C-alpha cells in the first residue's frame, strides 16, 4: 500500500467529522475544527491538495495512525 498523498480538503473534512470533530469557524481560507480532549484546534487549509505534513500533524493530534487513515481512504 502506498503512503500518504495530498488530498482535497473536502475528503479530509469528511474524515474529521467521522472522528468527532466539529467545524468551529472559518478564518480566511482555513477551516478550524475542535473536539473534546484535543490540546489545540485542528487547522485545515481550504485547498484541493492538502500537503502531507499537514495531514500527518492533524492525524497526530487526533491520535489516529496513518495506516488507519489510509484504510479509510480506500473504503471511501
Entry keywords:
76 residues; alpha+beta; Metal Transport, Frataxin, Chain A; three-stranded antiparallel β-sheet; 3 helices; 20% strand; globular
Short description:
The protein has 76 residues and is of the alpha+beta class. The chain is 41% helix and 20% strand. It has a single domain, classed as Metal Transport, Frataxin, Chain A (2-Layer Sandwich).
What's the overall geometry? globular
For this structure, what is the CATH homologous superfamily?
A: Hypothetical protein
Give the low-confidence spans.
none
Which architecture name does CATH use? 2-Layer Sandwich
The N- to C-terminal Cα distance equals 16 Å
- Strand line-up across the major sheet: 1-2-3
SS class: alpha+beta
Question: What is the ordering of alpha helices and beta strands?
Answer: HEEEHH
Helix content: 40-55%
Radius of gyration: 12 Å
Proportion of residues in β-strands? 15-25%
Describe the structure.
The protein is an alpha+beta fold and 76 residues long. 41% of the residues lie in helices and 20% in strands. It has a three-stranded antiparallel beta sheet. The protein starts with 8 loop residues before the first helix and ends with a helix. 12% of the residues are buried. The mean pLDDT is 93.
Amino acid at each position: 500500500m502506498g503512503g500518504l498523498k495530498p488530498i482535497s480538503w473536502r475528503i479530509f473534512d469528511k474524515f474529521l467529522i467521522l472522528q468527532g470533530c466539529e467545524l468551529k469557524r472559518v478564518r480566511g481560507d482555513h477551516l478550524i475544527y475542535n473536539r473534546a480532549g484535543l490540546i489545540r484546534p485542528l487547522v485545515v487549509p481550504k485547498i484541493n491538495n492538502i500537503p502531507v505534513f499537514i495531514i500527518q500533524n492533524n492525524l497526530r493530534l487526533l491520535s489516529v495512525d496513518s495506516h488507519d487513515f489510509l484504510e479509510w481512504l480506500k473504503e471511501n
